[in-house]
Specification:
Length: 258
Amino acid sequence: MPVDHNGVVITSSANPRIAAVTRLRKRRHRDRTGTFLIDSGREIARAHASGVEIVEIYGPPDADPGLRSFQAVRGPALEKLTYGERTDGLVAVARTPDVSLDRVHLGLAPFLLVAIDIEKPGNLGAILRTADAVGADAVILNDGGTDPWNPNVIRSSTGAVFTMTVAVATDAAIRNWLDKHSIDALTTSPSAPVSIWNATIPDGVAVVVGAEDKGLGSEWLHHRRSPVSIPMWGAVDSLNTSVAAAVVLYEVARRRQG
């Protein structure tokens, strides 16, 4: 049986603990407390397996998350805690992991993804999921976009935010770090004359994708490498940033497998 706090089942949505947990859906509270929320048992299990510190878990009295520090909730309290159409009703509070660039361990031919100013949580989650699928070594985010501990990012990534090494830094710090380790940046631009299909891809590479509305700034487009384009044959002139990232990541992965 799960272990709850003193056998008490919280039912009131006005309970101070429920209110404190719910506030973690806002970034300012995540930043202030150094904790974040994980919705659903699948993502909680992936976080725990990846070494993320689970502080406490909330859920229905009959739930068994298999971890300690379980607090049973039901009724209005459970409704306030859960997000969207969650079938298992489990919500965890976790300690925010270290996201410094120092935690990125590089091999002889690193394969990285750098995401700049990604604002939509769904896009960032999809990018993380793809990075995991292609076997990227790490995902590096700048501090100008949505944070990786946004509950919608976690949900959209299906927990890949926990299976990947994730780092966050300023744009300048990221570029300096890439320079320090002699890693070329593979960026995309619709006007680039060289297609991703024909581009020379170095052994150590960082695929860099930009914001949904404005793409990458000039300081990125020509950082250590000329940009490449993604072929398009229809009437539209751009791709969703998560789709563009997937195209480039899979082409890089295909070349590396060859």
